[in-house]
Amino acid sequence: AKYAPLGTRGLAGARAANYGAKLPFSFPEHIALSNQETLVILQIETAEGIEALPEIVKTPNVDIIFVGPTDLSLSLGHPGDFKHPDVQAAFDKIARIVTDSGLVLGTLASTVEATREWRARGARYVMTVFETMAGAAVRQYLDAVR
Question: Which helix (DSSP H) or strand (DSSP E) does residue 36 occupy?
Fold first, then answer.
């Protein structure tokens, strides 16, 4: 994800560098800016990922550890059951390891309740599904006008 010396991302006149044509800045400036502005997010979606997390958070140049709640619940044997004690314990363990590491905790939360729960755990990068929000508002509107 990063150019040398921080990583091994290829340069090769790619789209990000305007294919090498008429850059508004030099390649070294492009590399420095890209390395500074590229967000690196690692996902934890399995029980194995949780076990490896204390080492994963030591990876240089990582910005966010992102919990994939649905895949994680599946990996733990409770597909889609986010309230199951095993799943809740896994969420809490991940949150503790990530926040203690100084990295940003992230997740997908598709309800207000889930967003509040994750923010209480320390999540600062919370994605949601636009269709979930918009769909609820559209249904409410249609129910009101029918």
Answer: helix 27-37
